[in-house]
Design brief:
198 residues, alpha/beta, six-stranded mixed β-sheet, three-stranded antiparallel β-sheet, 28% helix, globular, binds inosinic acid, binds magnesium ion
Length: 198
């Protein structure tokens, strides 16, 4: 397959996806390296991976399969009830069940954007007194930051585009795309028109 065909948006998605930002192969390569970096940092100690629902599904599944150390996995549900591409008010939809006191914790999210989500979740986790707390995100949009947060492990730093695929959604859709793509602006413009009419 030529380099061009790998970055061409599959016909099925051409109406919604402007372009492929990160290919399936690039994702696979980077996630593997990221896992090595995390492994080294955790010195083979057992960890609790705390993942934020639902955008992390694919990244998490790939990442933990490359982590050669004992781990337990739990989820926190957070939903930002914004319908467009801006995050709205944060609501917790699922609480952590595993006791993380004195444990080494890795918090995993799909994307660090304004930082509002992380800045709400981190104090909540710190209050549970883990021994160590590190953060990992697949994507980072540093140009969008509102809150002063950073991630310890970052897959890719990307420019300020609304992206979908590999777990990331727009209005709960497109999570199943195997690549990360830039959402066509006409898609969210149509949605906001629809919301304004209501
Ligand atoms: P933050 O709270 O603004 O940092 O945003 C974090 C959350 O917003 C992520 O976990 C995503 O669910 C969502 N988000 C931010 N940017 C994007 C994007 O480009 N595509 C899809 N979801 C995004
Ligand atoms: Mg999310």
């Amino acid at each position: 397959m030529s380099a061009k065909s790998k970055t061409t948006v599959p016909l099925r998605w051409r109406k919604d996806v402007e372009r492929v930002l990160i290919t399936e192969a690039q994702l696979a390569r980077r996630v593997k390296i990221l896992a090595r970096e995390i492994e080294k940092d955790f010195h083979g100690r057992e960890m609790v991976v705390v993942s934020l629902l639902s955008g992390t599904v694919m990244f998490l599944a790939d990442l933990i399969r490359h982590l050669n150390l004992p781990l337990r996995l739990d989820f926190i549900g957070v939903s930002s009830y914004g319908l467009g591409t801006e995050s709205g008010e944060l609501v917790f939809t699922k609480e952590l069940r595993i006791d993380v006191r004195n444990r080494d914790v890795l918090l995993v999210d799909d994307i660090l954007d304004t930082g509002r989500t992380m800045s709400r979740v981190l104090p909540k986790l710190r209050a549970l007194k883990p021994r160590r707390l590190k953060t990992c995100v697949l994507l980072d949009k540093p140009g969008r930051r509102v809150e002063k947060v950073r991630a310890d492990f970052v897959g890719f730093a990307i420019p300020d585009h609304f992206v979908i695929g590999y777990g990331l959604d727009f209005a709960e859709r497109y999570r199943n795309l195997p690549f990360v793509g830039v959402l066509h602006p006409h898609v969210y413009k149509e949605v906001s028109k629809h919301i304004c009419r209501k």
